[in-house]
Amino acid sequence: MWNDLPSTTRTGASFSIFKKLLKTLLFREPQKKNIFLHVNDGSSLQSLQVVGGAELSDPLLTFGSAVEVTGTLRKSPHPQQPVELGADQIHVVGECNSVDFPFKIKERHSLEYIRQLPHLRCRTNVFSSLLRVRSEATTAVHSYFKSNGFLQIHTPTITSNDCEGAGELFQVEPSGPDFEEEVNFFSVPAFLTVSGQLHLEVMSGSFSRVYTFGPTFRAENSQSRRHLAEFFMVEAEISFTQSLEDLTKVMEGMFRSTTEHVLAHCADDVGLFHKHVTPGHRVSPEGQKCPPYSKEMITYSEAIDILNRSSENFTFPTDWGCDLKTEHEKYLVKHCGDVPVFITDYPYDLKPFYARDNQDQPKHTAAAVDLLVPGVGELCGGSLREERLSLLKARLEDVGLEEIYSWYLDLRRFGSVPHGGFGMGFERYLQCILGVNNIKDVIPFPRFSHSCLL
Ligand code: 4AD
């Protein structure tokens, strides 16, 4: 990648690139003596300017064509670009019919427009920036966990459990002539995973601190701007954790260190979003610091009081015991000063069977915590897990799942420890730091209700 060349060769006068395939993103009309191309190999937002003599001009050199250029890298006379490539040869490897090409030179295309072209949108500046940020953020998440003593576990994609108990499952069935009679996964029920949490809990009994980061599936019949049928989730499970505060520290640490890494490594790409796509967004690429977010921590009961004291006309009810909807989350974030807000201690009945019972509170709550962030709402969901065998058994009996989860009860029978964990929606994280409104614009190939393009 030209941008990765050591600085001595980049500024030197005699470095040659041979047989380098570069994509032409911008082709300027031949001027009097020279032709100018802007080529980009995807390594950076910055294109490399190629300068060639008029004899290298070719009618096939159009916006979008793929070229191979041989020449000499030299110091550029323009202060805003350190080097340019003086071309000896330019070979058009792949022609591009610029009349039919859906992107036009010097035109800024909206995210909605480029979303219609999932096979071509990585050719735009904005989507290639997004993909670089996504890749760096992935690296940063792994490095946060590695440097904090977590072991990475590959949890399965096909599973027999509905961890969240919400019934939003995609069932897995074989297909093909040999399986016409087959309705299940070789005669046993199987689903695409909604969460790797229960598998992480198995591992946390042995490794203390574990995490996973992979695709997760929810059969949500939703076109909303923050729901996908397939999304990536970062999940962590920590043994010997006794308080929600311990969990929130890990959530915050991961958020901060990932964001600082992205700002340090993708300042141009993040800057493109903040300048042209989401002006006014708060994460500053110049500062290379995580947003100066203070944060709030309030209980669910306090959140309900805040909502009920407000003069807003909410569509959904705000009685104690009701689930917090997007409109409520938005209001709470604004109310707390547009900062990330941790909401703790949700009604026991709202949370899945694994959440720990807060027995000592006047209202029946579970030790669960959600992190809400500006512009997105819920980013992370987590809880302490019920490690006490008798309470867990009683809850599983209540919901009729005792038999299916006998193996889960074994985890409590054989050397259980207090533990807890959380999951963060990776696409929502990208929406949050880039200020992108629609989740479909931060994933390479979005899958959502009635849409599975490519
Ligand atoms: O709150 P959720 O459902 O929590 C769990 O799945 C836990 N088992 C995680 C754990 O404790 N290990 O999901 C966690 C996060 C949400 O806060 C949200 O950011 C994201 O996953 N998420 C979605 N993102 C995109 N599309 C969807 N349909 C999502 N559903 C959840």
TrEMBL record:
Transmembrane segments: none annotated. Residues 131-444 form the Aminoacyl-transfer RNA synthetases class-II family profile domain. One of its GO terms (cellular component) is mitochondrion. GO terms for biological process: asparaginyl-tRNA aminoacylation. Its EC number is 6.1.1.22. The keyword Aminoacyl-tRNA synthetase applies. Keywords: Aminoacyl-tRNA synthetase, ATP-binding, Ligase, Nucleotide-binding, Protein biosynthesis. Belongs to the class-II aminoacyl-tRNA synthetase family. This is asparagine--tRNA ligase. It comes from Nothobranchius furzeri. The gene is NARS2.
